[in-house]
């Protein structure tokens, strides 16, 4: 029997990620910017993943799309929410994980999973941009920093500036007045990270925190947020090797299982 | 650790607690609303969320809560009671009671008074049973008396503040009233007495140091109150009345920092606390003390939740005249229906009456202070300097 | 399908003519005609019947054939029917305004009139429509305080706007014989005042007749609910949520009693396999849901999405008959007991208990609490309800949304939550992955 090949495509608001798998082994993984067109981003990411693995589209047995733009991926066999995908992907990476915290570009989620990676319960915050990747992006711009520089900046802070507002618009004006007061930039950055951590910890505590905790999504690459969140939660946080790819990975895994069941 | 009974709304009859010898503690909440996050959604009254956090964390009490008596005034307080029950009530060791508070609709309705009297009697029975305290009419009468004494003394502070707003810090007055809801009245009365006397002596001259010297018999508590009440800095702005619902202290300070003079308020953590008048109803109630108490609470000027819009507007207008206020700050807490809806009604009335109004919304925390600064400052600029003293 | 809403939208195209269109008898004659043409297309004939009833009553209110009284949800509107008045529910009107696609502009007018976006969107919509003069002028406004803080406050403001009296009920939270008498006394007072304001004779026989009709409605709806225990579900709960007009306005009218009886018969025939298409289930039923609170009435994919994914509303909180039989001989006491017995104006444990009971009775797979943004009563308890029901083993989704206001909603987010919840239900059913 030929080994099954599946693809998971996660079309997020900021990045689109693709993973190709063959029987539990990752063949390739790709992360690109989503840009304005979700559909073409998905096609591009899929194409890049195929060429990285040296495969053609016809070699792939099943494709599952997930993420905000999942409905626009016309070549996918089915669409599954990023909630189920992050759950499955995290469990596969580390079977002891029971709580997944995913901070994406547009929203943040706390997901409770069982030992098999099935979602038991979840909470999602998408009412406003506060506490998301988008929030950090806006603030980084205001501080004239690259998004990727925030973590390093945080490490230089002696203490955290007080940022009390949870609302992006208000927080931005607080940042402006902190800059005007001459508060050092690292301290402002740490203050922002603390405010995100506080909001996210609130979400996780509402769900009920069960160890072990894994953090996924682009913001997990920012060590400042991870440290602040870990302190707020009073729990160790496991990081995947590539936090941004977990949704696509989960989609590819679900595709394997689903396809295997259908072909029996 | 000492245990106390928590309460929130200014319609809560402390007299009943005192009559039973139960220590009570007014929950006011603070900046920290984090412990509420598991129980109450973010789109619910921030005061309720803050009070839940305060109660669950035993913050600032130095004592732990043995129960709460909340009024069924609005669904935020109904759910606050639910949350206390949910978080603490499991083993029957925590007292949770929602007291029915009839709406008056701006009428002097005897049926409503009777219903409230029945609810008070029921509360007394339940409290007595839970705390193992015996009821005595005599103790009740003493409690009513002491409470009235404290209210009159507090009103005296408000009267002086109205005349000399440049000397009184509004947030300090708020602190005194909050403290009144957390202290045995027989202990508080002499302190307030001494405070009032020395402030009267200090007169209109800016001579608070001599007031400080005259404080000996009030003890350290009076001195602390005095320190907090003392206002410094500019007072060249207009005279303002603050209404709506509980404005956090930092916002009072902000108004005063900008030169505004708070000459009066209609807030449940502040002046409204001093409003019930048992003296006037004591004779009319016959021997039924519960009916007396019910009348005194329901017949005082109504709060927005009472659905007495016309009566409230007339009362606020009288208050504006009495305080010679040049403008009104209407404060609403985010998600507080009673004040948000009322504002839509009153804003037109005030406009027709030519009274300038500033609408101020907060989340019961200092987060929006900087946004508020600009709004308040602009409002003060529009109103101009204070009118001549009367 | 010939579409009544489309016809209405067409008629109301020109905003400046709304008043003229709405107050013209011709409008309702035409609407009646369109409605008749659509009769065969309704999922249930009772829905068609309700449409006829609602349009007749709305016409009566706008054309001014009888004194109009506004009534807020859960006010015992039997009092108005018992005086031969024309009750009008502005809350149902707001839902219809949203269905027609005029919600956003109407709410904006309400916001301009001073109503914050943090309050209930039904009320912002009503305030907007009232300030534009688009609602039938009330002779009196009836509101009850128990399940909604906002409605009596809004009605107080609008009473001032229209110069009409607010007749409100103060409902105690704690039930006792004295409390029931206190409410019954108020009901009698409201009934007398209402007669006085509208120039009607307070006739106890007519009131008894209204209570009798209300009791028939109660009994028939209970029959409907018994029939709905069947698996698969004989009727779509999404359709059942369309009957709020009967619950909010109809109780006490002869029509509501008859429509409910017709509905019960119709479902009985379906259960017996004699329905139009000879089938019992209305669709492929994969997941049975208990639905709490209402749904989005503006143009929104949510309910379609649920049904497409095989979700069926097996039972709804709003369809539950929670009150005991009414006694026409004791109208005020009966109505007082009915009003006070609502499970959502009791400790939240009571709402939890009732929902768990319904979940068991209707053998649901999961529970959805649609948390209408401005509803303190329902949404305020949602987290505690979720925790308690989850501890009893029910999967629960607290779905934050809004019934009327689509502007603040990240629609994708709502659908994602719903889909993820259905994925959980599927995992539970199959015992393994998706």
Keywords:
heterotrimer, A: 264 residues, Nucleotidyltransferase, domain 5, five-stranded mixed beta sheet, B: 390 residues, alpha/beta, Rossmann fold, four-stranded parallel beta sheet, 8 strands
Q: Can you characterise this structure?
A:
The complex is a heterotrimer of chains A (264), B (390) and C (434). By secondary structure, chain A is an alpha/beta fold. Chain A has 2 domains: 1-94 and 242-264, Nucleotidyltransferase, domain 5 (2-Layer Sandwich), CATH 3.30.420.40; 96-239, Nucleotidyltransferase, domain 5. Chain A has 8 helices and 10 strands. Chain A has helices at residues 38-53, 82-93, 133-142, 150-155, 168-180, 185-207, 223-233, 246-263; strands spanning 5-11, 15-22, 25-33, 62-66, 78-79, 99-103, 108-113, 119-125, 213-216, 237-238. A 5-stranded mixed β-sheet of chain A has the order 3-2-1-4-5. In chain A, helix 2 crosses helix 8, helix 3 (133-142) runs parallel beside helix 5 (168-180) and helix 6 crosses helix 7 (223-233). Chain A is globular and about 65 Å long. The model of chain A has no long low-confidence stretch (mean pLDDT 89). Chain B has 390 residues and is of the alpha/beta class. Chain B folds into 3 domains: 3-135, 3-Layer(aba) Sandwich (Rossmann fold), CATH 3.40.50.11890; 146-165 and 167-234; 235-268 and 303-390, Rossmann fold (3-Layer(aba) Sandwich). Chain B is built from 15 helices and 8 strands. In chain B, the strands form 2 sheets. A 4-stranded parallel β-sheet of chain B has the order 2-1-3-4, with helices on both faces. Chain B has a 4-stranded parallel β-sheet with strand order 6-5-7-8, sandwiched between helices. The longest helix of chain B has 27 residues, at 137-163. The radius of gyration of chain B is 20 Å and the shape is globular. Chain B starts with a strand and ends in a 7-residue tail after the last helix. Chain C has a domain at 4-200: Rossmann fold, CATH 3.40.50.11890. Helix content of chain C is 54%, strand content 9%. Chain C is built from 20 helices and 8 strands. Chain C has helices at 4-11, 18-22, 25-37, 45-63, 78-81, 90-99, 103-112, 121-131, 150-162, 177-198, 204-227, 237-240, 244-250, 254-271, 302-308, 331-340, 348-361, 376-379, 382-391, 411-430, and strands spanning 68-71, 86-88, 140-144, 166-169, 287-292, 311-316, 366-372, 396-401. In chain C, helix 9 links the parallel strand 3 (140-144) and strand 4. Chain C starts with a helix and ends with a helix. Chains in contact: A-B, A-C, B-C. The interface between A and C is medium-sized, with 24 and 18 residues.
């Amino acid at each position: 029997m030929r080994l099954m090949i599946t693809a998971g495509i996660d079309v997020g608001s900021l990045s689109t990620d693709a993973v190709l798998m063959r029987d539990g082994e990752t063949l390739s993984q790709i992360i690109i910017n989503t840009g304005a067109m979700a559909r073409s981003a998905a096609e591009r990411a899929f194409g890049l993943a195929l060429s990285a693995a040296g495969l053609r589209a016809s070699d792939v047995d099943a494709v599952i799309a997930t993420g905000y733009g999942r409905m626009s991926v016309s070549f996918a066999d089915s669409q599954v929410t990023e909630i189920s995908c992050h759950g499955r992907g995290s469990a596969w990476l580390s079977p002891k994980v029971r709580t997944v915290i995913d901070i994406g570009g547009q929203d943040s989620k706390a997901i409770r999973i069982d030992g098999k990676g099935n979602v038991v319960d979840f909470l999602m915050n998408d009412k406003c941009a506060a506490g998301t990747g988008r929030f950090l992006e806006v603030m980084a711009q205001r501080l004239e920093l690259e998004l990727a520089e925030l973590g390093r900046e945080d490490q230089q802070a002696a203490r955290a500036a007080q940022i009390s507002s949870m609302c992006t618009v208000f927080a931005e004006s607080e940042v402006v007045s902190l800059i005007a007061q001459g508060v050092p930039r690292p301290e402002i950055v740490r203050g922002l990270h603390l405010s995100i951590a506080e909001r996210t910890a609130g979400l996780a505590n509402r769900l009920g925190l069960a160890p072990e905790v894994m953090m996924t999504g682009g913001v997990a690459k920012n060590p400042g947020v991870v440290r602040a969140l870990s302190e707020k939660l009073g729990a160790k946080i496991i990081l995947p090797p590539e936090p941004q790819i977990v949704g696509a990975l989960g989609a590819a895994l679900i595709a394997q299982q689903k396809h295997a069941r259908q072909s029996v | 650790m000492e245990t106390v009974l928590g309460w929130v709304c200014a319609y809560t009859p402390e007299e009943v607690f005192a009559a039973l010898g139960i220590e009570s503690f007014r929950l006011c909440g603070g900046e920290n609303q984090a412990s509420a996050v598991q129980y109450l959604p973010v789109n619910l009254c921030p005061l309720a969320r803050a009070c839940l956090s305060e109660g669950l964390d035993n913050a600032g009490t130095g004592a732990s809560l043995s129960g709460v008596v909340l009024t069924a005034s609005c669904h935020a307080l109904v759910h606050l009671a639910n949350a206390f029950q949910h978080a603490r009530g499991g083993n029957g060791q925590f007292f949770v009671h929602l007291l029915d508070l009839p709406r008056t609709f701006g009428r002097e309705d005897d049926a409503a008074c009777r219903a409230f009297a029945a609810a008070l009697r029921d509360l007394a029975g339940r409290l007595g049973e839970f705390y193992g305290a015996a009821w005595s009419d005599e103790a009740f009468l003493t409690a009513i008396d002491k409470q009235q004494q404290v209210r009159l003394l507090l009103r005296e502070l408000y009267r002086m503040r109205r005349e000399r707003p440049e000397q009184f810090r509004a947030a300090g007055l708020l602190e005194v009233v909050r403290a009144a809801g957390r202290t045995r009245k027989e202990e508080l009365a002499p302190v307030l007495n001494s405070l009032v006397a020395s402030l009267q002596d200090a007169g209109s001259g800016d001579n608070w140091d001599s007031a400080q010297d005259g404080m000996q018999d009030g003890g350290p508590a009076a001195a602390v109150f005095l320190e907090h009440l003392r206002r410094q800095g500019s007072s060249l702005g207009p005279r303002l009345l603050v209404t709506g619902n509980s404005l956090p202290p930092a916002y009072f300070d902000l108004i005063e920092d900008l030169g505004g003079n708070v000459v009066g308020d209609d807030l449940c953590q502040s002046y409204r606390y001093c409003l019930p008048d048992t003296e006037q109803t004591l004779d009319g109630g016959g021997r039924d003390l519960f009916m007396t108490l019910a009348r005194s609470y329901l017949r005082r000027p109504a709060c927005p939740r009472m659905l007495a819009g016309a009566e409230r507007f007339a009362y606020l207008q009288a208050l504006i005249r009495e305080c010679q206020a040049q403008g009104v700050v209407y404060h609403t807490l985010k998600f507080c229906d009673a004040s948000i809806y009322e504002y839509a009604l009153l804003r037109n009335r005030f406009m027709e009456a030519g009274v300038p109004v500033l609408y101020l919304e907060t989340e019961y925390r200092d987060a929006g202070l900087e946004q508020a600064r600009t709004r308040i400052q602009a409002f003060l600029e529009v109103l101009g300097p204070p009118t001549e003293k009367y | 399908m010939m579409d009544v809403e489309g016809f209405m939208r067409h008629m109301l195209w020109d905003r400046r003519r709304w008043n003229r269109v709405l107050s013209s008898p011709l409008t309702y004659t035409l609407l009646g005609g369109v409605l008749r043409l659509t009769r065969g297309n309704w999922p249930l004939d009772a829905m068609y019947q309700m449409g006829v009833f609602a349009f007749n009553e709305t016409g009566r209110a706008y054309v001014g054939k009888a004194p109009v009284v506004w009534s807020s949800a859960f006010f015992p509107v039997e009092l108005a029917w018992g005086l031969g008045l024309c009750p009008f529910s502005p809350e149902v009107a707001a839902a219809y305004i949203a269905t027609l696609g005029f919600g956003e502009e109407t709410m904006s007018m309400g916001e301009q009139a001073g109503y914050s976006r943090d309050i209930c969107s039904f009320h912002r919509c009503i305030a907007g429509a009232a300030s534009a003069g688009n609602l039938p002028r009330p002779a009196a406004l009836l509101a009850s305080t128990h399940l909604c803080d906002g409605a009596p406050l809004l009605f107080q403001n609008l009473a001032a706007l229209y110069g009409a009296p607010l007749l409100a009920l103060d409902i105690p939270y704690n039930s006792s014989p004295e409390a029931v008498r206190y409410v019954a006394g108020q009901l009698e007072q409201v009934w007398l005042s209402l007669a006085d304001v509208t120039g009607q004779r307070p006739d106890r026989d007519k009131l008894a007749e209204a209570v009798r009709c209300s009791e028939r409605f109660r009994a028939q709806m209970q029959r409907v609910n018994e029939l709905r225990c069947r698996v698969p579900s004989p009727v779509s709960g999404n359709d059942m949520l369309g009957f709020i007009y009967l619950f909010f306005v109809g109780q006490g009218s002869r029509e509501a009693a008859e429509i409910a009886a017709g509905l019960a018969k119709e479902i009985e025939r379906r259960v017996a396999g004699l329905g139009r298409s000879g089938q019992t289930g209305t669709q492929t039923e994969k997941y049975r849901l208990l639905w709490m609170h209402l749904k989005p009435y503006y143009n929104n994919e949510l309910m379609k999405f649920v049904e497409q994914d095989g979700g069926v509303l097996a039972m709804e909180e709003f369809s539950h008959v929670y009150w005991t039989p009414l006694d026409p001989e004791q109208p005020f006491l009966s109505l007082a007991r009915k009003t006070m017995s609502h499970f959502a104006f009791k400790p939240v444990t009571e709402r939890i208990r009732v929902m768990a009971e319904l979940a068991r009775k209707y053998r649901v797979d999961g529970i959805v609490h649609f948390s209408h943004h401005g509803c303190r009563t329902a949404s305020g308890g949602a987290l505690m309800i979720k925790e308690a029901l989850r501890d009893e083993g029910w999967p629960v989704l607290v779905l934050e949304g809004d019934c009327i206001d689509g502007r603040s909603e990240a629609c994708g987010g709502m659908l994602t939550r719903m889909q993820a919840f259905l994925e959980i239900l599927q995992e539970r059913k199959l015992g393994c992955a998706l």
